[in-house]
């Protein structure tokens, strides 16, 4: 155990503000712009709290993020820096997962009149909610994201909660209902609330600018009147979820409600100096004061960073430029995963046949949105690691991960060397048997052969025990859906490569250039970024740009470390809404801001309103 006085981060130098936050013993709101290293900040704070026992055993740290991959990234960093034993006291959740676990664990405290069954389904996009409206004979209601507690008709709620077997409708909740039931539990069960507060001495709130009113209400009920120390991190310039109900005043409210101190991180460790200056050109449009003290990392030279805006007469010439530039980057040594293609909306419409293009024989472009959440699923990471461990000796981290999960699920104390070594022998025997089964699979077989491998793996580990250890799989059909999606995607890669190692590499995206929406790129960074299709139609042609639209563009350009390419086409035939000749009256303010920076080269700049 390290002392608080002598604790210092390992293998990294934190700026003074960040180090103050890491060691703070008060509620804090941290303003952390793009590239500031907010995930690393939270990871180092977790390490400090655990390694110095400032979070005293057996208390825990609750880390709540808006996105699933943010929670996973934080967990991975803390595990790497603290080791498996200490990192088990960090509980990373998304807001939705946190509320769902509260409901699932304490579901019996909900009154029978609106208590869901234990194995309710989760409606992620309101499709089943609308079906319940139809079954109840009510006209479908349009829900405003700003309405955190929509008033569903009682017959609709009854169908959702109790189901309608005669119409083949299973009991179902959407995340709004789950969060409201979780809040009800907290409001009406003081012992549960007290237990939660005693469990978590420290709480992290990531991507705080995207917090909704209902989510904030849950957090406030949990910890506003408690001794738990809250660290919230966010950036108002990257507030792009207002359309989904994010609070416009979350920062100001948190400061008042939690008596929080404000800290501003001043480093941008991501972007080269010229790109950082380009980003600052957008501050005025974001109603932000230009922070001259924001500085690039010392690793850069002052002239590092390159940005190019290209205007094309049509989609074909735009896509040809992108293909040629991608080939040039790959041939000069840029790794596929260091490149990203971003669009504001509809990847298929704006990229079209680019998604079918192989940059080289080994490198392709893929729609990363399909894979992004799947790859972060615990069950997927476990199966991928098991297959790697069975057939390859080149992935030691995968084998160590499988060992840790095996010991954890089997309840074996890592300090009991005899039991640990005995279990390793059992695991190795299973992997040897599984390796034989995997190597006997050929492309002449069907998905069922891979399904058998997955079933054998969960049979070995104990499927129910695994689901109990990962609460997101404890009810509904999410676990089965996750397995089905994994098997379909991985089988497709095996059929294409006829080699399991290559199939796994491709499945994880090692040999593909990711294409995604701007919203899905939050928290990510790439050496080279293409931002495609900045036209009125991409930002909805029937209205002027909102501040949220400008924030989305800021998020896009701030993903780039070293190279930024922005493209637009004067004609788009593939766009269903706003196709044909493109207009720029709304987005011209973005181009003007970039041009005024003097930090972007412009090809064929001839944009008019």
Distinctive features:
single chain; 609 residues; alpha/beta; seven-stranded parallel beta sheet; six-stranded parallel beta sheet; 19 strands; 45% helix
Describe the structure concisely for a colleague.
This protein is an alpha/beta fold and 609 residues long. The protein is 45% helix and 14% strand. Helix 1 crosses helix 2 (38-51).
What does this structure look like?
By secondary structure, this protein is of the alpha/beta class. α5 packs across α8.
| Structural Rg | 25 Å
Q: What portion of the residues fall into strands of 2 or more residues?
A: 5-15%
Strand elements, count? 19
Number of helices: 24
Structural class: alpha/beta
Q: Which sequence of strands runs across the widest sheet?
A: 13-14-12-15-16-11-19
Shape: globular
Q: Main sheet?
A: 7 strands, parallel
Distance separating the two termini: 64 Å
Low-confidence stretches: none
Whole-number mean pLDDT? 92
- The amount of helix comes to 40-55%
């Amino acid at each position: 155990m390290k002392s608080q006085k002598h604790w210092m981060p390992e293998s990294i130098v934190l700026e003074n503000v960040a180090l103050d936050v890491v060691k703070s013993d008060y509620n804090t709101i941290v303003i952390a712009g793009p590239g500031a290293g907010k995930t690393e900040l939270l990871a180092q704070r977790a390490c400090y709290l655990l390694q110095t026992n400032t979070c005293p055993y057996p208390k825990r740290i609750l880390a709540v993020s808006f996105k699933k991959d943010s929670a996973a990234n934080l967990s991975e960093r803390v595990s790497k820096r603290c080791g498996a034993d200490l990192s088990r006291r960090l509980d990373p959740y998304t807001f939705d997962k946190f509320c769902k676990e509260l409901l699932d664990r304490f579901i019996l405290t909900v009154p029978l009149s609106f208590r869901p069954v234990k194995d309710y389904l989760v409606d992620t996009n309101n499709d089943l909610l609308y079906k319940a409206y139809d079954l109840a004979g009510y006209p479908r209601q349009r829900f405003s994201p700003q309405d955190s507690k929509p008033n569903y008709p009682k017959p609709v709620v009854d169908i959702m909660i109790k189901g309608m077997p005669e119409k083949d409708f299973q009991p179902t909740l959407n995340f709004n209902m789950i969060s409201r039931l979780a809040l009800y539990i907290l409001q009406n069960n003081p012992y549960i609330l007290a237990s939660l507060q005693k469990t978590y001495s420290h709480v992290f709130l990531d991507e705080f600018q995207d917090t909704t009113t209902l989510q904030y209400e849950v957090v406030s009920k949990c910890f506003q009147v408690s001794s738990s120390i809250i660290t919230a991190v966010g950036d108002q310039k990257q507030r792009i979820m207002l359309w989904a109900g994010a609070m416009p005043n979350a920062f100001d409210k948190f400061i008042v409600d939690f008596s929080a101190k404000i800290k501003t991180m001043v480093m941008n460790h991501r972007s080269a100096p010229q790109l950082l200056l380009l980003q600052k050109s957008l501050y005025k449009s974001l109603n932000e004061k230009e922070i001259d003290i924001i500085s690039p990392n010392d690793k850069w030279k002052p002239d590092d960073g390159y940005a190019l805006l290209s205007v094309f007469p049509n989609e074909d010439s735009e896509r040809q430029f992108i293909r040629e530039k991608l080939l040039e980057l790959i041939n000069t040594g840029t790794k596929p995963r260091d490149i990203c293609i971003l669009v504001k909306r509809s990847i298929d419409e704006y990229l079209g046949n680019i998604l079918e293009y192989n940059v080289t024989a080994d490198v392709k472009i893929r729609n990363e949105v399909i894979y992004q959440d799947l790859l972060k699923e615990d069950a997927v990471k476990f199966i991928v690691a098991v297959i790697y461990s069975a057939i390859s000796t080149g992935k030691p981290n995968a084998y160590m991960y499988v060992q840790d999960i095996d010991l954890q699920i089997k309840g074996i104390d890592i300090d009991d060397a005899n039991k640990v070594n005995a279990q390793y022998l059992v695991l190795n025997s299973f992997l040897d048997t599984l390796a034989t089964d995997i190597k006997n699979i050929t492309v002449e077989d069907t998905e069922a052969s891979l399904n058998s491998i997955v079933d054998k793996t969960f049979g070995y580990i104990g499927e129910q025990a695994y689901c109990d250890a990962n609460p997101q799989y404890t009810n509904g059909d999410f676990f089965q859906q996750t397995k089905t999606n994994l098997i379909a995607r991985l089988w497709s890669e095996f059929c294409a490569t006829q080699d399991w190692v290559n199939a796994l590499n491709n499945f994880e995206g090692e040999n593909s250039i990711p294409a995604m929406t701007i919203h899905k790129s939050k928290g990510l960074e790439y050496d080279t970024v293409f931002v495609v299709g900045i036209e009125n139609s991409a930002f909805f042609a029937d209205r002027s740009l909102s501040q949220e639209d400008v924030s989305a563009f800021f998020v896009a350009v701030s993903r780039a470390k070293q190279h930024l390419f922005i493209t637009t086409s004067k004609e788009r035939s593939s766009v269903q809404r706003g196709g044909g000749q493109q207009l720029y009256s709304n987005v011209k303010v973005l181009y003007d801001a970039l041009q005024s920076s003097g930090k972007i080269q412009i090809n064929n700049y001839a944009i008019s309103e």
